[in-house]
Amino acid sequence: MVSSKAETVENYLAELPDDRRDAIAEVRDAILENLPEGYVETMNWGMISYEVPLAACPETYNGKPLMYAALASQKNHMAVYLTSVYVNDETAADFRERYKATGKKLDMGKSCVRFKSIDQLPVDLIGEVIAATPVDELIGFYQEAHSK
To answer: What is the CATH number of domain 9-145?
Structure first.
């Protein structure tokens, strides 16, 4: 599955194979347990998305909510997308260092952390990264980047 047409998180999870459903659900639980106030969980871009509501930041470059994090089951892997790692070089360096210290192999693009099984992902670290960026801080990063 590259992009789901599911309209609810429950429907998205229901369409996944059991092993992927369990893995995505475990990461989702860690995100929800650590998600700072002000972000909302929704389905967007064909994946489970954690966003800044438009009411909090209405002027975006594409008219869509700012994505903070997302979870997806792709064709050859699962992925968690971490915008805070993408927008802040210091956060990115810290995340990479802490990830490698877990002994798990990091397979990452700019914000996308790919994993084939839950054993490959330090779920506690994902939760800590999620907890670290309040909504106002993400909005600030966005506004600073788009004011140049």
So the answer is: 3.90.1150.200
* Residue 61 burial (10 A CB sphere; 0-12, 13-18, 19+): exposed
Task: Please count the CA atoms within 13 angstroms of the CA of 141 that sit on its side-chain side.
Answer: 18
The ranges assigned to domains in the chain are: 9-145
In tens, the pLDDT along 110-141 reads: 999 999 999 999 999 999 999 999 999 999 98
pTM (2 d.p.): 0.92
Structure tokens at 82: 């971490």
Token pair 């972000």 is at which residue? 39
Rounded Cα distance, 55 and 33, in Å: 23
Q: Angle 35-47-90 (CA atoms, 0-180°, nearest 5)?
A: 50
